[in-house]
Each structure stands twice: as C-alpha cells, then as structure tokens.
Amino acid sequence: MSEPAPYPAGPSDRPAGPSVCPRHPDRVAYVRCQRCARPTCPECQRPAAVGIQCVDCVASAAQTAPRTRTVLGGRPGGPTPVVTMTLIGICVVLWIAQQVSPRVFQELAFANFLGDSQPWRFLTSAFLHGPVVHILFNMLALWMLGPYIETLLGRARFLALYLLSALGGTVAYLWMTPANSMAGLVGASGAVFGLFGALIILNRALGYGTQGIWVNLAINAALPLFYPQIAWQAHVGGFLTGMALAFLYSRARRQAALAWAGTAAAGVGLAILAASRYIVT
User: Fold this and answer.
1) Distance between alpha carbon 250 and the CA centroid of its chain, in Å?
2) Domain boundaries for CATH 1.20.1540.10 within the chain
3) Fold for the domain defined by 83-280
4) Active site residues
C-alpha cells in the first residue's frame, strides 16, 4: 500500500524571503527602483519624477544627460557661489594670519623690486589686506558682484576672470610706479575692479542696463582722492583686464576652446608685460 508523500518543492515554490538592498545586504528594502526594479533601502533611494530611483541609476543618468551651459557658455555650478565664498574665505583667513604674524605680509605682499625673483607675489598680494576697512570694502564688493558673475560665467571662467584681473592690476602697478619701488602692494581691489569692468561688458552683451554699475564704480574710483595710499594703478589694470576677458567670454559664449585659448593668451600676455618691465629697467 502506497502512501502519499509530499512533492519536493522547487526553488520557485519556496516562500520568498524579504528583499535586501544590493548595496547594503544587511538591510531589508521594501521599495524597488522604478528604473532597474532592484530593491533599494532608504539610504539609497532618490526621488524621481515618477516614484523612486536607486542611487546607481541616478548616477548613471547624470553621466549620460547632456551638460547644460550658462547663458554665456560656462558650466553652471549650482545655486551656491562656491568660488566667491572660497575667495572671501581665503582673504579673511590670511588677514587674520597677518594680524598674528608679520611674516605673512613679508612673504606674500608684492613689491616692484621683488617681482622678478619672487613672481608668485603678483597673485598672492591680492589675497592680503591692510586695515580692517580695507578688507571690509573689498569683501563687500566681492560679495555683491561675485555671485551674479559666477552664475553668468560658471565657476571656472569666473575664477579665471578674478585671478587674471588681480594679475592685471599688479602688472599695471608695476608699470606705473618706479621699478625699484620698495612699497608693498596688497589688496583685492584690482580683482574687484576687474569684476566691475566685466559686469559692464556682460550686462551690455545681455541687453541689461549698466547705469547703477557706473555709480558704484565712480564711488570706488573716488576713494583714492581721500586715501592717497590706495594704489589706483591696480584699479585701472584690473578694470581693463576684466573688461577684455568679459568681452572675450561674451563673444565666445559656447565656444569653450576659443574662450580658454583667449584666457591663456591673456595670462601669457600679462606675464610678458611683467617680465618686460624688468628687462627695460
């Protein structure tokens, strides 16, 4: 007499265990990615237009998505003005360091007689400042202008504009003062005036008004009349450099190769101008 025996259950017939996240096997996942259908734990979930996607699918989509550009052809850097905030942070930290040790000024400030042997001073001097009112004026102007221009140009072009304007200001100071001058030059004014010049060109290229910019520029340009120790030569050099670069960026727009070739040419040109000053004296 035969007795009924239980039919051996196959793998598909066994009760399924709880789904686990592929990235975190120790975690139960109750939600599946709408794109790849894999289970995903709360840490790996990302909200999508419809449902939830896993972090891997989001990263894959970001790599294949077309890269957007700003209105003037730069790569957008997001809503936070990271470059502007970083520049302000560096200036503030170095200003505090100046109050602690005079060596910061001695090692980083620019002086005409040191520029040929220690060329880094052409740029490092733009991150140092004198009295507290000096850094306050410059950082306020940078905060007012920087985020807007950074949004228009993108982070990389904005940083190039700022640094080359600072360099242009120092080179102009070198040419417009005695070559053997031992006076120290510090301050971000050359770079800030470069932003003023750039903003005039960029706003005109976009069809925006520039009247308010000229008023602010006139106020800042008048400061040397009341404070003769201000190096107005750096203001002029930075302003002209900023205008030139902004004109380049407004024309090149989405032609990245042309924009960066022009940026490199501007940097080389300023370096040649600085070197030639020491050759002719």
Assistant:
1) 18
2) 83-280
3) Rhomboid-like fold (1.20.1540)
4) 189, 235
